[in-house]
Structure formats: structure tokens, C-alpha cells
Specification:
The chain is an alpha/beta fold. It has a single domain, classed as Glutaredoxin (3-Layer(aba) Sandwich). Helix content is 32%, strand content 25%. The protein contains 4 helices and 5 strands, in the order βαβαβαββα. Strands 1-3-2-4-5 form a 5-stranded mixed beta sheet. Helix 2 links the parallel strand 2 and strand 3. Helix 2 packs across helix 4.
């Protein structure tokens, strides 16, 4: 994988909700809406981390307890909810625990 723009190889924890739009503005971004107390979210953690290191997508983790406004804005009703943004636009929505392969496939659909 060689690219002029280095894509983070680890998931990014969203700290400031005002930065959300900046993160999803360019390229393909997988947004993981999760919570620390969510069992399926914890089970998915290795898959999310693998996708961050093995694909050209940026992975952004959003804690729904800390960022309820963002969760509401994007219609997150159950967690884990994963959104795929491509070029700043919401391109895909995946609800529930997923395999690493399913996440990688969702990202691959939007990378050209």
C-alpha cells in the first residue's frame, strides 16, 4: 500500500464532534458508532482495528454516550452502527456486529 496521503492504521477516537465533518470529508471513512458497555461492539473491536490497518479507509470511532448529538443526527438507533462515507457523502449503513470481511467488502465497494 503506497499512497501520498498516509491513512491512519489505527482507529481514531473522535474527541471533538465539530471535527466529524473534517474526518469524513475526503476519501473513504468507516465510522463506528459504539459504546464501551456494548458487548457486540467489544466483539467487533479486532475486526475494526484490522480494517483500519489493512484497508485504505480511515476508521473513526464515535462513542454514542459522549456524542449523542452525532448519533441522533445520523439516525443511530442500535449499536454497533457503522457508516461508510465516500467523498464526504454517506454511502452505506451497516447495523449490528459484522465480520472483518464484511467491513472490508463495504469499504471496497466505495474505493476506486
Amino acid at each position: 500500500m503506497s499512497s501520498t496521503d498516509a491513512v491512519p492504521t489505527e482507529p481514531i477516537q473522535l474527541a471533538d464532534p465539530n471535527e466529524f465533518d473534517d474526518y469524513v470529508a475526503d476519501g473513504v471513512v468507516l465510522v463506528d458508532f459504539h459504546a464501551d458497555w456494548c458487548g457486540p461492539c467489544q466483539m467487533m473491536e479486532p475486526a475494526v482495528e484490522a480494517v483500519a490497518s489493512d484497508t485504505d479507509a480511515t476508521v473513526l470511532k464515535v462513542d454514542v454516550d459522549e456524542h449523542q448529538g452525532l448519533a441522533s443526527e445520523y439516525g443511530v438507533q442500535g449499536i454497533p452502527t457503522l457508516l461508510v462515507f465516500a467523498g464526504g457523502e454517506l454511502a452505506d449503513r451497516i447495523v449490528g456486529a459484522q465480520t472483518e470481511e464484511a467491513l472490508a467488502d463495504a469499504i471496497a465497494e466505495h474505493t476506486a
